[in-house]
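Known limitations

Files may contain more than one protein. Parsers should not assume a single record per file. Below, a two-record file is shown to illustrate correct handling: read the sequence, read the token line, then continue until end of file.
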Amino acid sequence: MEAITDLIYTVPEVSLWTVVLVALVLPLATKNFLCNRVFFYALLPVIAVIGMFWQSDIYWYSVIGTVGLLGVLLRSKWGILSTLMTAFVVLLYHVYASPDKLQNCLLAKDYNKSCKILHLASKNKNLLQVVDDNIYDRYPDTIVSYNLFIDGCIKTIDAIIDDSLNQYQNIDIDLLTIVNDWKKTMMIGDDASEKEYNKYNNCVCAYNTCLEKISKRYELNTPQLPYRWGNATFSGKMVKGKRVGKGHMVYSDSSMYEGDWVNDLRCGYGTYSCREYSYIGTWDKDMPNGQGCKSFANGIEYKGSFVDSLYSGEGTMKYADGSVYVGTWAYGERSGSGTLNNKDGSSYVGEWKSDKYEGKGTFQSKNEKYEGEWQNGKKHGQGKWLNFDGSTYIGGWYADQYHGKGVFKSKSQSYVGDWQSGKRHGKGNWKTANGASYSGDWYADLFHGFGTYKTPETSYIGEWRIGKMSGKGVMKYKDGETYDGEWLDDKRSGKGVMRYKDGETYDGEWSDDKRSGKGVMRYKDGSLYKGEWSDDMKNGKGCLTMSNGQTITGEWTDDKCSEPEEKKDDDFSWGKALFEIGAAAFLLLF
């Protein structure tokens, strides 16, 4: 089973069922003549030659793998045959190679798993010869040979390369030509299959390993070949098909990474660049992790801590407009505490969440300053606002607007009371610099409900509707006059009593701030008018009773009686009355 494991490692393309079948058949080899080992082994070259004409890669590699396995199994008792068969494996592998197919490096692992041997495939199948235990590489005008075995064991890769270098050193040959010759054998198109890319990359691995050995001895400046995945290329070290150590990766979208690799992942320190941005810093799990700097093409730059490619921890962000943020980050967003200095001179110092002001913080600009609570990037909660024109507000906020209980003061006015959505709403007291004041109910920044409004000239207590006196209310004027009655849109309208400063009174109907309709007017001289009014004058039917008892009744126009009615005789006559009584009695008697 150990040999089978070696074989699977040696030739990855081998058909596993073939290996298992051979492993099961071998124990039966000693039971009869037909299965005698020598007879069985003699058939193997025939099977291999037949496989050369078979079009299936799986079958062909199965044959090569079978021969290689038997060569390993025979090593203990059949050393000579094992040696020949192992060399035959190398020969078959290279003879099978054709100019239009790239060949993988033949990787074999020796029986005790202590080392690997490597031999580069050659583009031209005639360039390699196997004689006894030697393999010959034929280059222009030169034949270099080296032995694959030492003390019956396969040489290590270092030993084989050292042997070849020693041979090259003794012969006048251009090593750069050899390197370039190898390089020409390893060309592949962008439309190659995944299997062909794997073969290509294994071959590149062998090439780069040899080049590294040669370069150390002869100080060559020949660059190593890149590994390929379609349009993507990798220049660096690969171990068992995985990128390790220092390396340079160019991706199919032309983005590039240069830096450390661990187990085929970017890990350590490296630089990545693409059209949108570049990153310089530490990596882990194939992503920026740790400290680094990310610079965008539009001028944005971040320096600080990363977690899985996202800004996280302490960091500084410089924005395209010149603004700078210094503080903590989480999941790629400003979160925690930090300071933002904007290009226009404004700044914020405080708490953040999801890239917005959240919690307690102070915002200051050229015109204003706010210190208090924030939510979702807006003033929210309790806070103090100061405008540099002298205006202040202390109280509740909701979505950047005054809300709840609060006190507003400015040079021209002040308000203490309830707010809603930035407007006075509820109950509150308002005062102005010119002496006006209001105490009562508010609605959407307007007097509404019941309240008292005072100015240096007037005082009103009563009902309001949408900022105007509407309903019942009492108005007192500076000169002593009063009105107690109904109002509409800041004007006397409906029924009401007006008491004038000279003692006169009007009790009746009003319209558009004028006496209109029916009403009674008592004048200071004692006269009284009872009747109809219009446009603040007697108009219509009415009766004016003078202080001496004289009356004027009729149709009035603009305070004048135009059509007086006839005066009825209301005098009492005792004679006439007695006559009428006597006449009535006489008629009753007779």
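...continuing to the second record:
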Amino acid sequence: LETKAVTLHAKIKGRFRTVDAEGNVVSKIYDTTPGRMIIGELLPKNVNVPYETANQEMTKKNISKMIDTVYRHCGQKETVIFCDRIMALGFAHACRAGISFGKDDMLIPDTKLKLVSDTEALAKEYEQQYNDGLITQGEKYNKVVDAWAKCSEKVADEMMARIKAVEFEDNGRQKPMNSIYMISHSG
């Protein structure tokens, strides 16, 4: 990491040392990332808290599960120490990352125009139903609001699907993750 040969999120094979049921130190090779290796080093050395606990995407939910695993198998003291170390690591990397985003990070889905035009047509249809006396003003309002809410949700879902995609440079190295995805997904 310090020589910038790899990034925190690069896919690597890494050797991780932990303890087995008898208390012996054992090494195992994992498909992982340097960032996960750093988090794994913070885990208490306990047979019931394997490296797999940290070798996953660090979403809010998975971080909560990891802390719960440490608490259940190592107790309150180890959990507090672990959480303090995770917090310090998070602050250090958040400051160092200097993550920002601009309009170019917002990838507009190719289907947005069609979704918007379909929703506009639906709104016109509801207006016509109201004019024909088939639905009330309140029903028309609710249907239009619901249609636009669904449209917004579909556009947002498709944008998130595009920005979370892993991209590679011509030389095969993984491009950095999209800032918006990283910010929204990490909590």
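Parsers that stop after the first record will miss the second one. For reference, the second record is described as follows. The chain is about 55% helix and 10% strand.
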